[in-house]
TrEMBL record:
InterPro entries: FA_desaturase_dom (IPR005804), Fatty_acid_desaturase (IPR012171)
Alphabetical keyword list: Membrane, Transmembrane, Transmembrane helix
Recorded GO MF terms: oxidoreductase activity, acting on paired donors, with oxidation of a pair of donors resulting in the reduction of molecular oxygen to two molecules of water
Xref: PANTHER family: DELTA(5) FATTY ACID DESATURASE C-RELATED (PTHR19353:SF19), FATTY ACID DESATURASE 2 (PTHR19353)
Protein's GO biological process: lipid biosynthetic process
Transmembrane domains' residue ranges: 48-66, 72-89, 169-188, 240-265
Gene Ontology CC terms, in alphabetical order: membrane
Annotated Pfam families: FA_desaturase
Residues making up the signal peptide according to the UniProt record: none
Protein name (record): Acyl-CoA desaturase
């Protein structure tokens, strides 16, 4: 499914003017409420992250420190997993409602030096500058255009019938699972365009500076999550173990090990949730894809039409939308990527009404529907 054929050129241009009017109206109304919203999200995200860390550290005092019997293990795991879950949710909010949206310049109008698209570095192994290129520039410009948008299957998955089948796609389900579990690493490598590198369409000379930048960010993230926090966890137990005369070395090593486990769980929650929300916004049943020929000489109005047809929404409540970074309003995000995401909910009914007037589909559905059809497509398209 490509561009609609029932709209004339003048219809498309009028559609674009109406979309511009919606965008300009919301942009002109940005102010104190939007500022208060993003500051509040930052505050609560950091509070949740700190609370999760504290709960993880508190769990160490439930360890059977004297004899390492099984007494106390159930309570310990409940508290540790609670802390890891809080950490995972905080990381999801930081990546999606904060990092993703701030790096889209949605809050640059505030002129706050701490909340700017060119200075925000998110809690992710992908350097923010490379993400902004692969996502903001490439994906949002060429959404769902074959040969232009590398987000179609991310170079490893077959997600549409328009992609020619190869034997490698038999592993679609396995690759999808691995990508979901390791999503931040896939994001980090995405801008390298490994498929072009292997095909000789891109040289190593081009990607070496990018690899060095990724290496810097990976070292920073690994040092933070798997060295500094574990050492702090061990330090927390030190006074307690010394006072009671417990085995300091074993307790410290246990605290470090369990901190690493908690961080792995927290990062895993963020990876899975980010992957699922992003896939549900791009690959469910009914999404449109386009050829390079269809977008030749494309106007801004036609770009609006393509963004509408190439994106999908997920229905849900306010908390769900915040946890998804408002990417549950993927259609509005692709139409208005630099408008603060907290305004998408009020724009959505107007966009849907416009789509109906112009006879264009507005792909929205429950989480179950969007995730189910996405997963089914990935499994189905693994076969010829």
């Amino acid at each position: 499914m490509g561009m609609p054929t029932h709209l004339s050129a003048s219809d498309i241009e009028e559609f674009g003017r109406e979309m511009d009017a919606i965008r300009n109206e919301i942009a002109d109304s940005l102010g104190s409420k939007d500022r208060a919203y993003i500051l509040s999200v930052i505050k609560w995200q950091r509070t949740l992250m700190l609370a999760g860390r504290i709960v993880i550290f508190l769990s160490f005092f439930l360890l059977p420190m004297s004899d390492w019997t099984f007494t106390g293990w159930p309570q310990f795991w409940v508290v540790l997993l609670l802390g890891a879950g809080m950490l995972g949710v905080s990381k999801s909010i930081e990546n999606m409602e904060l990092g993703h949206n701030i790096m889209h310049a949605q809050f640059d109008w505030m002129r706050d030096p701490n909340i700017q698209s060119n200075t925000w570095e998110w809690d992710n192994v992908c350097p923010s500058d490379q993400w902004k290129h692969s996502h903001n520039v490439v994906h949002h410009t060429w959404t769902n255009v074959h040969g232009k948008d590398p987000d179609i299957g991310y170079g490893v998955l077959r997600v549409t019938d328009d992609q020619r089948w190869h034997a490698k796609y038999l592993f679609n389900p396995v690759i999808n699972f691995v990508l979901m579990m390791m999503f931040q690493w896939g994001v980090a490598l995405h801008d390298l365009e490994a498929d072009k590198l292997l095909a000789g369409q891109k040289s190593w000379k081009e990607v070496i500076p990018m690899l060095k930048r990724i290496g810097w960010k990976v070292r920073h993230q690994l040092l933070k999550d798997y060295v500094c926090w574990p050492l702090l966890g061990a330090a927390v137990t030190l006074p307690f173990t010394l006072y009671f005369g417990f085995d300091v070395i074993n307790i410290a090593l246990a605290a470090m090990g369990f901190t690493i486990i908690a961080n792995l769980i927290g990062n895993g929650i963020r990876n899975i949730w980010s992957n699922v929300i992003i896939f549900c916004g791009h690959f469910p049943a009914g999404v449109h894809h386009f050829t390079k020929e269809e977008v030749e000489g494309e106007t801004r109005a036609a770009w609006y039409v393509r963004q509408l047809l190439g994106s999908c929404n997920i229905t849900g409540g306010k908390l769900f939308h915040i946890l998804s970074g408002n990417l549950s309003h993927q259609i509005e995000h692709h139409l208005f990527p630099d408008i603060p995401a907290n305004r998408y909910a009020e724009m959505s009914p107007r966009v849907q009404a416009m789509a109906a007037r112009y006879g264009l589909p507005y792909n929205k559905g429950s989480f179950t529907r969007q995730f189910g059809t996405t997963t089914w497509n990935i499994w189905r398209l693994s076969l010829p």
